[in-house]
Amino acid sequence: MANRILRGVGRALAAYLNAELPSYTPLATHSAEHLRRSLRPGDILLVEGNRRVSAAIKYLTQSTWSHAALYVGSGVIAGPEDDPPVLIEADTEHGVLAVPLSKYDGMHTRICRAVGLSDADRAAVIAYAEARIGYQYDLKNIIDLARYLLPTPPVPTRFRRRLLSLGSGEPTRAICSTLIAQAFQSIGYPILPAVIRRPSRPGDPRHCNTCETEVLRMRHHSLFTPRDFDISPYFAIVKPTLESGFDYRQVVWGEPCVAAALPDGLAPAGDDHAGADQHRA
Fold this sequence. Notes:
The chain is an alpha+beta fold. The protein is 30% helix and 16% strand. It has helices spanning 2-17, 32-38, 52-61, 119-130, 142-146, 160-165, 176-185, 226-231, 240-243, 272-280; strands at 44-47, 67-71, 85-91, 95-100, 109-114, 194-199, 212-217, 235-238. Helix 4 packs across helix 7 (176-185).
């Protein structure tokens, strides 16, 4: 009986946290068509997010990104031909599921691509995530959801990542960045590992008596956040506008924006010329 009550409260809380913020309008930095043409299976799509839970995640991670999804491509998961489910993602309300790319049309996104993946490893990453479709968040653990209620929880910087990893075990692994981190760790691909240095040993790639070898240690999957794929030295950032063959000489410029009236002596943000004139004066 108590578990049923907790799950009911958990469902209501998850729905509240996943509701969109009516006053928030994300700005897409490229067209949806450019995004579709640039994505490849195995890519990670980071999303800024416009939900209540997004604000807390962005604050805790000190990042633009609040959500991550794995692109698997069309034909992998059954669905409508005109808008197929091509992303696998996880959230606290629905668990792990496949969604179409249209869900993030008009959103601020970023593509992160693992460098050097073989076709077999890419397929293994996708299969790992696909096998977990249907996993659910443990909604009876209210404390796991309550951490997101405050958009800017009063948590010292050094404890913020730990707050995100707070959970009750296996069921809480159905979280976006955790799921993707597990998928890549399953093939031994580094994301943001701890790096230690030790004296070189026989069998190391570059062994000599005075050499040192860098040794990577995997961090626990529950400690990963969407931001980690962005700053990882092992993932390339793919910009759809550049991938489509950007040529600045082909840009058609319109009339310049009219700056709002500002007090004397102040220039609009980014107006370097005005700042320089002010300095010369």
